[in-house]
Amino acid sequence: MGLMDKVKEQAAAAASVAKDAAQKGQAKVDEIQARRAADGVLRELGLVIYLTQVDRAPANAESDIAEHIATLKEYETEHGALQ
């Protein structure tokens, strides 16, 4: 095996490692973005429930609650239980 063959082999191995690291990094970013989105939905749900409890609920409170719960169920299906 010549020197150039060894260099090409090492470059291919390095590219493979870099590609794997990039995929893992992107997966982590996607996970963080999904968690932040779920946190936002939880906050909105909490606000609607609070407003309901203090008799200041908007007219569409029931549908908002149902929509937020459906969104959170989808999150749990895809990412696991909320904590």
Radius of gyration: 23 Å
Give the low-pLDDT segments.
none
End-to-end gap:
55 Å
The overall pLDDT average reads: 92
Number of helices: 2
Q: Please give the largest β-sheet.
A: none
The geometry reads as rod-shaped
Question: Roughly how much helix do the residues carry, as a percent range?
Answer: over 70%
Strand percent estimate = under 5%
Q: Could you characterize the architecture of this molecule?
A:
Helix content is 84%, strand content 0%. The chain has 83 residues and is an all-alpha fold. It has one domain.
Features:
mainly alpha; 2 helices; rod-shaped
Outline of the structure:
This protein is an all-alpha fold and 83 residues long. The chain has one domain.
Write the SSE topology:
Layout: H1 3-53, H2 61-79
Helix pairs in contact: 1-2
